[in-house]
Design brief:
The chain is an alpha/beta fold. It contains 15 helices and 15 strands. The chain has three domains: 38-232, 2-enoyl-CoA Hydratase, Chain A, domain 1 (Alpha-Beta Complex), CATH 3.90.226; 238-370, no CATH class; 406-464, OB fold (Dihydrolipoamide Acetyltransferase, E2P).
Length: 469
């Protein structure tokens, strides 16, 4: 009995010791955990700030939240851009719930200053600048002019509210936007505030100074970090490229030209496909960037339908055609302006740039059509192309081809009845004969009485007898 108890005791001790050791090891690991890596995202804010960039920032911040990032560093080097795009980025930063640092590496001007002020801490590289954020309007000639008081007031309060939310000096933020703001010993009335690195440090706008991202991590106190440097994807770069005003105008011009020349020939061919692709790229890029909404695309398509009805179904040109052209222009114009958020006003400069882009596209389209129709057919290149591709098959008299003669009995003054619609070509019945005829530029309905006005080279020209006075 004693031996059995002793044996049981030994077994209990044998199994307990490994368990105690494992528990001790686990407890020791919990009490002294290995130093955890801090996930830090690096987001570049470089070049022009547009709605394509704001979409990229929104995507990356969402990814950072899903991956448990504890810090986001925005490397800023920009002269600014669209206010609505900067406002979207600002809102995304403030609502992310992740600590953020704005690393001004060279410059954070205009809209770039708003993004920097939206971060929790600002670090600047030596020789960098921040400020000069008053909104301006760009004229078609390329000159810059100040906007109205309404726009300045909005942007000024946007900067102030952002600074208050992030804990930065609100008066400095306002002075960057409105030259009427005066700060003693900092900026005089009538001057916009722009700060260098040393000035920003002195005025407590910038917290630290660093040469590069590695030094930013060090001054922020990060020792063991997992750095994730991100950049726009190829699709985001394409969207930003397409929404550039110059590229947008080019796509519109090529799209208009392709559709125009497709309407000049029967069937559907390469020019029509090319035009549709260009217009699809225009609207698709603006839709993905947040500039265009589905309403603008519906307006454009409705305009195309009305214009097609006017061309193919209704004689002459009237209200339907005018309405179609109006809807097409309106859809394109609204797509160029964009309004990604209802609380962000559209600045005057957006209207000017949109109108300029659309006007240049229309003028370029008309000019290209005139030049192509007038000069291209007479060039040697076109003649070679025409002889090799367009006229490989010739209808010659020796092969049995000839112009059909006018039936006997049909002469000037002969009357008949339109067998089909003449617009301007159609069929006319003269007694038992049915001939192809051409109206004198007028629209003649089927069943309407007509009269032969002249015969030229086998072609019969007619006019409506009902409309003669």
């Amino acid at each position: 009995m004693k031996k059995s108890k002793k044996l049981l005791f030994i077994l209990l001790i044998s199994f307990s010791i490994p368990g105690l050791l494992f528990y001790s090891k686990g407890s020791q690991k919990e009490s002294s955990p290995a130093e955890k890596e801090t996930i830090v995202y690096i987001i570049p804010i470089k070049g022009t700030i547009d709605l394509g960039l704001s979409s990229f920032v929104e995507r990356v911040i969402k990814e950072a939240k899903e991956n448990g990032a504890e810090e986001i560093i925005f490397e800023i080097d920009t002269f600014g851009g669209r206010v609505d795009a900067a406002t979207r980025i600002r809102d995304t930063i403030l609502e992310s719930g992740i600590h953020s640092t704005g690393f001004v590496n060279k410059r954070a001007i205009s809209a770039g200053a708003l993004i920097a002020i939206a971060t929790d801490s600002i670090v600047m590289a030596p020789g960098s600048t921040i400020g000069a954020a008053t909104p301006v309007a760009f004229s078609p000639a390329g000159s810059i002019s100040p906007v109205g008081e309404k726009e300045i007031s909005y942007v000024r309060k946007e900067f102030k509210a952002t600074a208050e939310r992030s804990g930065h000096p609100a008066d400095l933020a306002e002075a960057m936007v409105d030259p009427e703001v005066e700060i003693p010993n900092v900026v005089k009335k009538g001057k916009l505030l722009t700060l260098t690195t040393e000035e920003a440090l002195k005025l407590k706008l910038a917290a630290q100074k660093a040469m590069n991202i590695q030094q930013v991590l060090e001054v922020c106190g990060f020792k063991k970090v997992s750095v994730k440097e991100v950049s726009p994807s190829w699709s985001e770069n394409i969207v930003r490229f397409i929404t550039n005003p110059v590229v947008s105008g080019l796509l519109l011009t090529l799209g208009f030209l392709g559709i125009f020349f497709e309407l000049q020939v029967p069937g559907w061919g390469l020019s029509g496909t090319f035009g549709v692709v260009c217009l699809a790229l225009f609207f698709g890029g603006h839709l993905l960037a947040g500039l265009a909404q589905w309403m603008e695309i519906i307006l454009f398509l409705a305009g195309i339908v009305l214009l097609a009805i006017e061309i193919f179904a209704i004689p002459g040109f009237g209200v339907t055609g005018i309405a179609g052209i109006t809807l097409i222009i309106l859809g394109i114009f609204l797509s160029l302006i964009g309004r990604p958020a209802p609380d962000v006003p559209i600045l005057k400069s957006y209207y000017i740039v949109a109108a300029y882009t659309l006007l240049i596209s229309l003028l370029a389209t008309i000019t290209c059509i005139i030049l192509i129709l007038k000069f291209i057919p007479s060039t040697r290149l076109w003649k070679n192309f025409e002889s090799r591709l367009a006229l490989k098959f010739r209808q010659e008299k020796v092969q049995g081809y000839s112009v059909a003669p006018v039936p006997p009995g049909i002469q000037e003054g002969t009357e008949g009845v339109a067998a089909t619609v003449l617009r301007p070509v159609g069929k006319v019945q003269f007694g038992e004969e049915v001939c192809e005829c051409i109206s004198e530029g007028e629209y003649i309905k089927a069943g309407e009485k007509v009269k032969v006005v002249r015969i030229e080279g086998g072609r019969i020209f007619v006019s409506s007898s009902c409309r003669e006075v």
